Amino acid sequence: MRIVQIFHRLRNYLVGAGGQGRRHVEVERQGIRVGRKRVARLMSEAGLAGVSRRKFVTTTVKDGGRQAPDLVDRNFTADRPNLLWVADITYVPTWTGFLYLAVVLDACSRRIVGWSMATTLATQLVLDALNMALAMRRPKGVIHHSDQGSQYTSIEFGHRCREAGVRPSMGSVGDAYDNAMCESFFATLECELLERRRFKTQAEARIAVFEFIEGFYNPRRRHSSIGYLSPIDYERRHAANPDAHQPAVVLAAVKDKPFGRPANGAVLDRRCARRPHHRAGRDGRMALPGAEPKNGSKLEDKMSDQIP
């Protein structure tokens, strides 16, 4: 079956990953004319099913360090590369312990421009990712947006930003929506790699993550928000024709997160982005209705205020 062969040539990353739209586009751009539903049916018959997200582990620890202002305000759009970078840390489970991964992502193309891996959550982890991005891109006045983890509020990280002319920016505490674009990449990494493999050693995990980022995600992984192009292809087209650039689409601010939309519908403009609201911690997006938030009052207290 040619469709299955195409996915196997892509090192299996697209098998079971993403929705029908991404699979359909990949097949059509290989020269096969076929409907979206037929692609889904054939993949199902071949036993190539989707994957789900893994459990949550905390990687953000605030230590009272000096925080930077929020220069992004959940507006993750950039007219060209090297205007806005978003950064964060995630973990890769192995049989011998966690391997931590820090990334720096360009908001214009969603390309991973810097990354590093380590066995501890030391400041050097994020410094190495930033230094890789600086050496690769050589930006001027780029905004570096992150959470308020102790690695990003450290003296060493702040000094490196000032030295390189980087403008640090940080979202609020315990709210994944303030760094939604980087969280989106981590969701892709989890669903398309980490949920599909189990690593015996950290060395094995390092190789797999490297191959995913540099061998698949940057050069070949298609994004619906940038016209089903890979990050590298998108940057090439943007460099050739900057006037045709369309900013990447990312999750907009939604009021009353993360327990669903309000009764009158979601508010998607930026004016609502900084209104006070109860937060349920960084993993609040995975909380079930009626669950107690980690960093806020109970949902029942919030609902009682609305009862006349």
What is the structure about, briefly put?
By secondary structure, this protein is α/β, with parallel strands linked by helices.
Describe this structure in words.
This protein has nine helices and five strands. The protein is 33% helix and 12% strand. The longest helix has 19 residues, at 202-220. Strands 3-2-1-4-5 form a five-stranded mixed beta sheet, sandwiched between helices. Residues 11-17 and 251-304 have low confidence and may be disordered. The protein has helices spanning 2-9, 20-28, 36-45, 123-137, 155-164, 180-194, 202-220, 231-240, 299-304, and strands at residues 84-94, 97-106, 112-118, 143-146, 167-170. It folds into three domains: 2-45, no CATH class; 84-244, Nucleotidyltransferase, domain 5, CATH 3.30.420.10; 252-308, no CATH class.
Biggest β-sheet: strands ordered side by side in the sheet: 3-2-1-4-5
What is CATH's topology name of the largest domain? Nucleotidyltransferase, domain 5
Low-confidence stretches: 11-17, 251-304
Mean pLDDT across all amino acids = 76
The end-to-end distance, rounded to whole angstroms, is: 62 Å
- For CATH, the homologous superfamily of the largest domain is named as Ribonuclease H-like superfamily/Ribonuclease H
Q: What's the β-strand tally?
A: 5
Question: What would you report as the Rg, rounded to the nearest angstrom?
Answer: 20 Å
Second-tier CATH architecture of the largest domain:
2-Layer Sandwich
Decide which structural class fits the backbone.
alpha/beta
Reading the helices and strands in chain order gives HHHEEEHEHEHHHH
Biggest β-sheet description: 5 strands, mixed
Per DSSP, the total helix count is: 9
